[in-house]
């Protein structure tokens, strides 16, 4: 059996090596390292793929979130509601901009921001909601957009984990995740579903005025060369990374389909096993055509067993795995606040003890999946 990896970037590279190598060499030959044609072309190709009016590439997914919030003109003291169960980048940029993070609980089935918890958290100071499409499944955007409209709030989608996922609204319209809110961010960190070979990110929006503002912010607040109209940042996607992304974008649907196939095999093996809860909140039969889960992570819940002992056991058996996330954000030292009450976080407080994410990438084979699922099942059935 091939050695099991949490993420297999090498196997994926080998299949697109010729295109990647020649594109990278071409950037070097032409020395258009910053904002070269590869960046411009990638931007257009991603706009077409997502069916969104504007893609603004930037340096990473964390910058993308920060710049989106700057572009919306959020001011210190404005409250921004986001999920307690996510990667820290989301709350980090809120705090960094001196906005007030308002962390709320998540849904126990799909792990995304809880709709009732959002409603409860709204105050006269609330200005925005940041749903995170966690592990590859879009949050309930119909409900979130309705709440936002009612209370006149912005919606910033953190789409770092769900690029390529579909979302079908109640009215039947089909969208790509990250094109429904007022603005969205994504990350091209190597292990993401569309990853480059270093850092990268992008902001998406259908709003022409906002896109214009953001294009200036990413470039030192310049709209006319050496005229700095607003305080900006320096955040660029470099041309070598754009060249890698252009080679991979045409394969994104195929990559996501391979993830879904691996996920379906995991789920089939775990289906009737007591104490294992497989990912929910989407229609597995219609995945990719309806509200799809593109499995940035395949995360199960382990009930009535020692999750940490399972993690150790898997590692001993040569199976890498991850606990995303081991600590709720409201309990992290940097983000603790006396406003938070433990009884408002019953779901995240429980999830951090139960979740484990299994190896997930485009190159998993049947033998590996069988070995992984057998090892997990044997452990929980002991
Ligand atoms: C990866 C990730 C980010 C940050 O992306 P970087 O490119 O690493 O800065 C933000 N939010 C979520 C949910 C992520 O998974």
UniProtKB/TrEMBL annotation:
Keywords: Aminotransferase, Pyridoxal phosphate, Transferase. Pfam families: DegT_DnrJ_EryC1. One of its GO terms (molecular function) is transaminase activity. Its EC number is 2.6.1.-. InterPro entries: DegT/StrS_aminotransferase (IPR000653), PyrdxlP-dep_Trfase (IPR015424), PyrdxlP-dep_Trfase_major (IPR015421), PyrdxlP-dep_Trfase_small (IPR015422). It is an enzyme of class 2 (transferase). It comes from the Bacteria. Coiled coil: none annotated. Belongs to the DegT/DnrJ/EryC1 family. This is DegT/DnrJ/EryC1/StrS family aminotransferase.
């Amino acid at each position: 059996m091939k050695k099991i990896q949490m993420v297999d970037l090498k196997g994926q590279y080998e299949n697109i090596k010729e295109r990647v190598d020649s594109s990278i060499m071409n950037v070097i030959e032409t020395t258009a390292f910053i904002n070269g044609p590869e960046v411009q072309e990638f931007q257009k190709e991603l706009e077409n793929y997502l069916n969104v009016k504007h893609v603004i590439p930037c340096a990473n997914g964390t910058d993308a979130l920060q710049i989106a919030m700057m572009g919306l003109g959020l001011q210190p003291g404005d409250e921004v509601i986001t999920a307690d169960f996510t990667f820290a980048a989301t709350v980090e940029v809120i705090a960094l901009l001196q906005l007030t993070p308002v962390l709320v609980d998540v849904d126990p089935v799909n792990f995304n921001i809880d709709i009732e918890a959002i409603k409860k958290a709204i105050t006269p100071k609330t200005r925005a909601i940041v749903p995170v499409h966690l592990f590859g499944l879009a949050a309930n955007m119909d409900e979130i957009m309705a709440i936002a409209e009612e209370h006149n709030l912005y919606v910033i989608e953190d789409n770092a984990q769900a690029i390529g996922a579909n979302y079908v609204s109640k009215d039947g319209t089909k969208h790509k995740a990250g094109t429904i809110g007022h603005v969205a961010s994504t990350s091209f960190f190597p292990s993401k579903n569309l990853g480059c070979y270093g850092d990268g990110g992008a902001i998406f929006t259908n709003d022409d005025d906002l896109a214009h503002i953001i294009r200036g912010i990413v470039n030192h607040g310049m709209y006319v060369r050496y005229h700095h109209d607003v305080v900006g940042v320096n955040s660029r996607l470099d041309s070598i990374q754009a060249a890698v992304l252009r080679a991979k974008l045409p394969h994104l649907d195929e990559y996501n389909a391979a993830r879904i196939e691996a996920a379906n095999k995991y789920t089939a093996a775990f289906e009737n096993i007591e104490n294992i809860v497989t990912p929910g909140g989407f229609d597995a039969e219609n995945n990719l055509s309806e509200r799809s889960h593109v499995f940035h992570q395949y995360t199960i819940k382990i009930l009535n067993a020692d999750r940490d002992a399972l993690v150790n056991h898997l590692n001993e058996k040569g199976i890498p795995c991850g606990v995303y996330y081991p600590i709720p954000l409201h309990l992290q030292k940097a983000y603790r606040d006396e406003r938070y009450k433990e009884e408002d976080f019953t779901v995240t407080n429980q999830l951090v003890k139960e979740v484990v994410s299994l190896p997930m990438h485009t190159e998993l084979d049947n033998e590996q999946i069988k070995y992984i699922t057998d090892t997990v099942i044997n452990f929980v059935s002991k």
